[in-house]
Design brief:
By secondary structure, the protein is an alpha+beta fold. The protein is built from three helices and six strands, in the order αββαββαββ.
Length: 109
């Protein structure tokens, strides 16, 4: 009985992952995401070329993820966030090799 329970949980988890991916693909990125306790809204979708041109290739992985997407920040931005214990005003997420989402920080301190 324990083995069948594990199989059901595994299948349910897989179904949830597929549903999440399908929602994102067909309905676009979420309008709002949370990162470091702050809200970011209104994503701009950029290709790799657009991202590189706009941010001069400054996006480096931070080691964090939001909704399974890698968080990117410039080296200078990473130092500033760490030094002043703050959050970035622009949240850059890498969905895959040719798709980036750029969100703006919302609200006050």
């Amino acid at each position: 009985m324990a083995a069948s329970t594990k199989v059901k949980l595994s299948i349910y988890g897989l179904g949830l992952s597929i549903a999440t991916v399908l929602l994102f693909v067909f309905w676009g990125p979420p309008e709002r995401v949370e990162y470091s306790g702050r809200s970011y809204e209104h994503p701009h979708i950029l290709t790799h070329e657009e991202f590189t041109e706009q941010f001069q290739g400054e996006g480096l992985p931070t080691g964090d993820t939001v909704r399974g997407m890698e968080v990117l920040l410039s080296e200078k931005g990473q130092k500033t966030v760490k030094k002043y214990d703050t959050v970035p005003t622009v949240l850059m997420l890498k969905e895959h090799q040719n798709k980036y989402l750029v969100y703006s920080l919302q609200g006050g301190p």
